[in-house]
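Duplicate of #3305? Posting structure anyway:
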């Protein structure tokens, strides 16, 4: 299996957010690629989903047909791209990896579809961001494995059908709700990826530490797991940061105490909240009496963009019950007041 990846979107991310340093993104991406599991056995967590996928793959192999188109949705960092790679490996086919913002012009999507070979997998990340034209090119490609091309102008317009090899599209999105109905309906299989529990994350951490030759004990792994917001991508980043700390401040081994000390220094609390999460919650509590307050107002006040708040901060705060979404904006929960050490809610009700 070979992986062909399209890096354009990373350049766009950098342009969109000048705070993200290009070297950091490249480094993170290379690091992530180097530790990606390639088999279902090595892929930790998402147990129910893995079992279903194994059956789907076996059936497709028995029928000697490509897999149905698949849609994975859920918060970022839970392993959607990794899972697509595992599926390709298991099917014994190549995978081409791209993302919707890199398919801006019709020729981008046409080019990639025409380059596919029979049975290959096309992975499109952030598929909810696909533009209308690209979507319409994709419909007949997904449904009938053809490209409908038009030439000429108004009176003389001609349509041509170009056959494509049978392929599988794997779409990934953090926002299933923003996918258009017609596109969603063309996926035969739709799955949600769940946050990982602490035991699963500890296993991910131990596996990564093994690959990177990092010395860690069980308790050290569990401390990092508990502060990783149910997300392997965060767990893997933290294990590296904690390992640096262990090397410089201790003897290199990650134990419970070393992990606690390092994560305190990184200002990641026992819930896994970082400075931005706490800033967001404190803003709503102190300036808006607990909310509701609109997302744009929050974004402007804490200097983050709306998309980062919606995609990165919110899913975990919502899942932890610290934040609530209401039609009138975001509200913090009594649990958030408690977690941040406030004694009263809404400047009236007592917590204790
Ligand atoms: N690294 C990132 N996600 C992983 C997973 N689900 N299993 C093992 N290692 C991982």
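Output from current build:
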């Amino acid at each position: 299996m070979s992986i062909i990846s399209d890096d354009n979107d990373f350049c766009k991310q950098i342009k969109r957010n000048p705070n993200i340093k290009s070297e950091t993104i490249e480094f993170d991406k290379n690091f992530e690629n180097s530790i990606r599991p390639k088999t279902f056995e090595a892929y930790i967590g998402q147990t129910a989903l893995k079992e279903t996928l194994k059956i789907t793959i076996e059936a497709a192999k028995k029928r000697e047909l490509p897999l149905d188109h698949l849609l994975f949705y859920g918060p970022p960092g839970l392993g959607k791209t990794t899972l697509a790679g595992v599926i390709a490996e298991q099917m014994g086919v190549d995978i081409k990896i791209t993302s919707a913002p890199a398919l801006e012009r019709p020729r981008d999507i046409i080019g990639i579809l025409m380059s596919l070979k029979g049975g290959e997998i096309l992975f499109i990340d952030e598929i909810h961001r696909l533009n209308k034209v690209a979507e319409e090119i994709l419909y007949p490609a997904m449904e009938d494995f053809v490209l409908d091309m038009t030439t000429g102008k108004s009176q003389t317009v001609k349509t041509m059908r170009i056959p494509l090899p049978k392929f599988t599209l794997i779409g990934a999105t953090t926002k299933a709700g923003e996918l258009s109905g017609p596109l969603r309906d063309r996926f035969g299989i739709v799955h949600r990826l769940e946050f990982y529990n602490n035991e699963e994350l500890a296993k991910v951490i131990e596996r990564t530490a093994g690959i990177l030759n990092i010395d860690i004990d069980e308790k050290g792994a569990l401390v990092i797991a508990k502060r990783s917001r149910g997300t392997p991508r965060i767990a893997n980043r933290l294990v590296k940061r904690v390992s640096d700390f262990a090397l410089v401040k201790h003897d290199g081994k990650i134990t419970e105490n070393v992990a606690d000390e390092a994560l305190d220094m990184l200002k990641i609390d026992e819930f896994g909240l970082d400075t931005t999460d706490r800033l967001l919650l404190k803003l709503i509590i102190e300036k808006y009496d607990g909310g509701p307050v609109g997302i744009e107002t929050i974004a402007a006040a804490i200097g983050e963009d709306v998309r980062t708040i919606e995609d990165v901060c919110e899913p975990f705060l919502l899942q932890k019950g610290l934040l609530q979404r209401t039609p009138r904006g975001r509200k913090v929960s009594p649990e958030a007041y408690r977690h941040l050490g406030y004694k009263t809610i809404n400047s009236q009700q007592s917590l204790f």
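Confirmed duplicate; merging threads. The chain has a mean pLDDT of 91. The first strand starts at residue 3 and ends at 5.
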